[in-house]
């Protein structure tokens, strides 16, 4: 959910707002119990169990792999003096970036609405203002992806997003429900001002969380379940930039190709030009999670 700003090199934030890596509700510490149980059981099913259980899972995966079209609503939220930074063609360019990135994984996006808002408090989105904004702007249902592109997103991050949870079933808590969606620094939209991060891939990364993926370095350890996905190499440290030569190896004890960190994976923190895609099991996980939590809700 979180991408760290390279504070020093970008010089866009004062050092006083030095971010903590996981302060945005996108790590397992902020996930619902239901979400955690689900990823643990999907993870176990992929690696263990009887042949019959694995066959059943494979069959279910097959059902879960039919194409998904996600309805999306983009909310442009600018400070008064930053309105001009976000041009009319940026939402469409952002949609193209999402479509292009997710197309190999059977997911595309249908942009059903764009709202344009000028509000200095919402553009920063501190806690109360964030909820007020989302209550005012959120559209659609639990399967509608709402992304808030804010010119001055707070917290020293480029984005954050909610993980799926069963809240939609009862629609019991309007506050939690309204909160569902992604906050993205608007300058990361294609041709935005955030150098290195302005090809629209922050929204791609955040949408990965919305579809149920964790960071490839979740847990920051060479042991343990990490991101609960077996075909992403274990990774103890988030990536900055694109350190591919020599390859970054935060868990050098791993075997073979898994020695190299998954720096090209959308769920790492690499720069936009470094990102290449998701893995096969991340693909399966997103389809599962969408069908389980979002579709029909
Ligand atoms: C997809 O997977 C979810 C989670 O395992 C399951 O609840 C759902 O029934 C599956 N959908 C289909 C169409 O098989
Ligand atoms: C993105 O996907 C949607 C849904 O399939 C489609 O309507 C739209 O034309 C696509 N846009 C691009 C640029 O591919
Ligand atoms: C788009 O959003 C506006 C609010 O900004 C709303 O009035 C309108 O009904 C929405 N259109 C659709 C197609 O949902
Ligand atoms: Zn993230």
Description:
- It comes from Massariosphaeria phaeospora.
- Belongs to the peptidase M43B family.
- The chain is of the alpha/beta class.
- It has one domain: Collagenase (Catalytic Domain).
- Helix content is 32%, strand content 12%.
- The protein has ten helices and five strands, in the order αααβαβααββααβαα.
- It has helices at residues 7-10, 33-47, 51-63, 90-102, 120-124, 127-137, 167-170, 174-179, 201-210, 280-294; strands spanning 68-78, 107-118, 144-150, 159-161, 182-185.
- Strands 2-1-3-5-4 form a five-stranded mixed beta sheet.
- Helix 4 links the parallel strand 1 and strand 2.
- It is globular, with a radius of gyration of 18 Å.
- The model is unreliable at 4-25 (pLDDT under 50).
- Residues 69, 96, 99, 108-110 line the site of one 2-acetamido-2-deoxy-beta-D-glucopyranose.
Provide the CATH top-level class: Alpha Beta
Distance between the termini: 22 Å
The tally of beta strands, per DSSP, is 5
At CATH level 3, the topology is Collagenase (Catalytic Domain)
Give the overall form: globular
Q: Class by helix and strand content?
A: alpha/beta
Question: What is the assigned CATH homologous superfamily?
Answer: Collagenase (Catalytic Domain)
If strands are numbered along the chain, what order do they take across the biggest sheet? 2-1-3-5-4
Total DSSP helices: 10
Number of domains: 1
Q: Would you tell me the overall average pLDDT? A: 86
Helix residue percentage: 25-40%
Largest sheet: 5 strands, mixed
Query: Element order, helices and strands?
Result: HHHEHEHHEEHHEHH
Radius of gyration, in angstroms, nearest whole number: 18 Å
Bound molecules: 2-acetamido-2-deoxy-beta-D-glucopyranose, zinc ion
User: Can you tell me the residue ranges where pLDDT is under 50 for at least 5 consecutive residues?
Assistant: 4-25
